[in-house]
Design brief:
Elements: H1 3-12, H2 14-18, H3 22-55, H4 76-108, H5 128-135, H6 140-158, H7 165-178, H8 180-194, H9 201-210, H10 224-239, H11 250-266, H12 274-285, H13 292-312
Helix pairs in contact: 1-3, 4-6, 6-7, 7-8, 7-9, 8-10
Length: 313
C-alpha cells in the first residue's frame, strides 16, 4: 500500500472511529481525505518537475564535442547528439528577441529607476544604458539593436518563421521608415520569391535595395500580406518600365472641385471639401450591397490595362 493509502487506513480504522464520537470520527475522515489529497498532489508536482527538468535545455544538457564515429550516415548516437544540439541552436536564435522585448519594457517604463547602483549604492541608475552596462555587462549598441528589432522577431515567430537576428536587423530600417507591417511584408515577399529555407540576410538586403527610394504606402497599418502584394506590384511595374505616378493630375483635381460645387448646390451647402468627396467615393467603392462604383472602377482599370498592353505590343 502507498503512503497515501497508509495515511487513509490509519485515520479510518473502524476500531479507532468506533471509540470516538460521531463528530470526532467525521473530523478524522476529513483530515484523512485532506492528507491523501496533499500526498497525491505532491506526487503529481514531483512528476511535473521531473518532466520540466527533462525538457529544459541548458549547458549541462548539450552533448560534449566528440570526433565523428564514421564518414557516412550518422549513427543513432550521433543522430541524438545532433537533434539535441540543433534544438539548442534554434532556441538560441529565438532567445534574442525575448531578451530584446524584456530590455525594451524595462527601458520604456524606466523600471531600473529605484535599483541601487552596484558601485555607488547611494544613488540609483539614471538611464537604461547605465543599468545594462553595469548590471548586465551588455554593450549599448547591442542593447539598441535588440530593442529595435524584437517586435519584428515576435511577429515572424507568431507566423511560424524562425526569427534570425541577422535577417531582422536588415528589416529594421524598413520598419523605421514604413512601419512594422511593411517590414513583415518585405520578409513575406522575400520568402515568396526565394523560399523560407533559402532566405538569407543578404537576399533580404538585395530586395530592400530594389525598393524605389520614393516608395509610398497608402496605409502602412494595412495587413502585412496585403502590403506584400502592393510592394510586389510596385517592383513588377518598375522592372517592366511602366512609370506609375501616385500624384493625382491637376486636371482631375480641378474637375473634382467643380463637381463638388454642383453637389454642394444640390444639397444647399456652401461647399463640399475634397476630403469628403474622397471619403464618400471610398465608401461607395466598398459597399457590398451596391457595386456600381466598384464595377465602374474595375471597367476603367481594365480599359487602361488593355491600352497599356497595346502600347507595349
Amino acid at each position: 500500500m502507498n503512503q497515501a493509502g497508509n495515511k487513509w487506513a490509519a485515520h479510518t480504522a473502524w476500531d479507532a472511529v468506533g471509540q470516538q464520537s460521531p463528530q470526532e470520527g467525521a473530523n478524522r475522515l476529513i483530515e484523512a481525505g485532506k492528507a491523501a489529497e496533499e500526498t497525491q498532489q505532491a506526487a503529481v508536482e514531483a512528476k511535473i518537475n521531473e518532466a520540466l527538468e527533462d525538457a529544459r535545455i541548458g549547458l549541462d544538457k548539450i552533448p560534449a564535442p566528440v570526433a565523428p564515429e564514421g564518414d557516412g550516415v550518422l549513427t543513432d548516437a550521433e543522430r541524438k547528439r545532433f537533434e539535441k544540439c540543433n534544438a539548442a541552436v534554434d532556441l538560441a536564435s529565438e532567445m534574442w528577441f525575448i531578451q530584446g522585448k524584456a530590455l525594451d519594457t524595462i527601458a520604456t517604463g524606466r523600471l531600473f529607476r529605484d535599483i541601487p547602483h552596484k558601485t555607488d549604492p547611494t544613488r540609483c541608475y539614471a538611464t537604461i544604458e547605465e543599468w545594462v552596462t553595469v548590471e548586465k555587462d551588455l554593450s549599448v549598441p547591442n542593447v539598441t539593436r535588440l530593442r529595435a528589432g524584437w517586435d519584428i522577431g515576435e511577429r515572424l515567430h507568431e507566423r511560424g518563421f524562425t526569427a534570425v537576428a541577422g535577417q531582422v536587423r536588415t528589416l529594421v530600417p524598413v520598419k523605421n521608415k514604413y512601419g512594422l507591417n511593411a517590414a513583415i511584408a518585405v520578409f513575406l515577399l522575400a520568402v515568396d520569391v526565394v523560399g523560407a529555407d533559402k532566405l538569407t540576410a543578404a537576399r533580404l538586403e538585395d530586395l530592400i535595395r530594389a525598393l524605389p527610394a520614393d516608395l509610398e504606402l497608402d496605409d502602412p497599418d494595412e495587413d502585412a500580406d496585403a502590403l506584400a502584394k502592393t510592394i510586389k506590384g510596385v517592383l513588377v511595374n518598375r522592372e517592366g518600365g511602366a512609370a506609375v505616378s501616385r500624384a493625382i493630375p491637376a486636371a482631375v483635381t480641378r474637375a473634382v472641385d467643380k463637381r463638388a460645387i454642383t453637389i454642394a448646390d444640390a444639397l444647399n451647402r456652401p461647399r463640399i471639401p475634397r476630403s469628403e468627396v474622397t471619403l464618400r467615393l471610398m465608401e461607395a467603392f466598398v459597399d457590398p450591397d451596391d457595386t456600381t462604383v466598384y464595377e465602374a472602377v474595375l471597367a476603367r482599370m481594365k480599359k487602361q490595362a488593355r491600352a497599356g498592353r497595346k502600347e507595349l505590343g
